[in-house]
Structure formats: C-alpha cells, structure tokens
Amino acid sequence: MANEFNSISGSKRSLHVQVAREIARGILSGKLPQGSIIPGEMALCEQFGVSRTALREAVKLLTSKCLLESRPKIGTRVVARANWNFLDSQLIEWMDGIIDSEQFFHQFLGLRRAIEPEACALAAQHATVEQRIELSETFQKMCDVAAKAEEEFFDQAEWTAVDMKFHNLIFNSTGNDFYLPFGNILMTMYKNFIVHSSEKGGLCLQEHRDIYEAIMAGNADKARSCSANHLQESKHRLPALN
C-alpha cells in the first residue's frame, strides 16, 4: 500500500476534497480493501504533498460518508461496504470510471423501479397547478428536442438536462417530503444513466408522453403502470438480467 497515491499539491481544487477523492477512489476500486488500515498521516501527507490539516479534513469528509473510521491506537480503517453511503452525490461522482457501468446502470434501474412508479402515482394525485404547468412546459421542451433529433440535430446535453428536469419535477410533485431527496440526490445518477440510455437516439418520448398524460389527467394507476413500462432494461440499452 506504500506510495499508493500521487502528489496533488499543484491541484486547483480544494486540497482536502481532492485528497478525499483520491482516497475514496482507492476504496471504491478495492485498492484499499474493506477493513484495512490506510497509511498513517506522515506517509499520506508526503505522498499527496499536502499539510496535516488538509489530510485531516479529507479524512473527516470520508468519515462523514461512512468510508473511513478512526480508532485510537489502531489508526484509520476502511469501513465495510454495507455501510457506504451510495446515495451521496459526491460519492457517485467519484465512482466514475472505476466501476462497471453496465452493473451500475442495472442497479440504478432497480432502484428506480422500486420508487419511481409510486412517485408518478403520487404526482398524479397531488401535483399543484403550478407544478403541472411546469411539467407541461418541460414535456413540450422534450418534444422540441426530440423533433430536432429526428432532423439529425440531436443535442444530447440538451436532452439530458430536460429529461432530468422532467423526472425531478415528478419527485417534487408527490406531496411527500420523503421523496424530495430522491429528486435531488439521484440527479447525479440520472445524468450518467440518461447519457447512456439516449446515446443512440433512444429517447423513449412516447413512454414519457404516457407518464406525462397520466399525471396531467390525475390517473394514479395509469401513471404508475406507465412508469413501470418505461423502466424496462430494453428501453435503456441494457440487456435483461436472467
């Protein structure tokens, strides 16, 4: 584990966040195994080229994300995977490029299936007039982007932004405060997922239309079933799991 990390002293980012990112990626990739003791302060400060203050702030940040724990006379240990906060948006960003994308997308789709159909049903029942107007405007924007895509002017960044907004609005329209965090925290995962899903022009516009129309009609059962239909692997460039 010696000399595991490179110096980041020239980084323009906040030093402690950059240190935290590098240690986190070592944990997430398995280079720093669960239950292992990470190198001591002096060794890490030398490897990263940072002060003890920056290193301690990094360890504090990773402790708050349940990746590390410090114990007197033992050192700083990597926490078991079962305790990692996978819904932390920063942690999701740090995973980029070090985990299997297909596995990640399958797991995320499974999470969406568990919560999103019910969010759509609740939105159909509880969305305010203002929220319905905003959802209508957002869906019209989706139609505009899709129309340009048919003319071979597809702007994936534009589609990703409006698709994310569409789903975020649904969570925010449930009338249930416990759904609100999903509308914010999950956006980091949505971005990567939507980029993958729409890479070859698979916009699922009809599925979004079905969800939108059911919500606007106040039909909770239909909104739920339309959402479940949308969340099939085949509609997102993913092979079905056996």
From TrEMBL:
GO MF annotation: an example: DNA-binding transcription factor activity
Gene3D superfamilies: GntR ligand-binding domain-like (1.20.120.530), Winged helix-like DNA-binding domain superfamily/Winged helix DNA-binding domain (1.10.10.10)
Keyword DNA-binding belongs to the record: yes
Residue span, HTH gntR-type domain: 13-81
UniProt-listed InterPro entries: GntR_C, TF_FadR/GntR_C, Tscrpt_reg_HTH_GntR, WH-like_DNA-bd_sf, WH_DNA-bd_sf
UniProt cross-references to CDD domains, sorted A to Z: WHTH_GntR
Descriptive protein name: FadR family transcriptional regulator
PANTHER family membership: GNTR FAMILY REGULATORY PROTEIN (PTHR43537:SF44), TRANSCRIPTIONAL REGULATOR, GNTR FAMILY (PTHR43537)
Swiss-Prot/TrEMBL keywords: DNA-binding, Transcription, Transcription regulation
Signal peptide (from-to): none
Pfam families: FCD, GntR
Superkingdom to which the source organism belongs: Bacteria
Taxonomic source organism: Vibrio casei
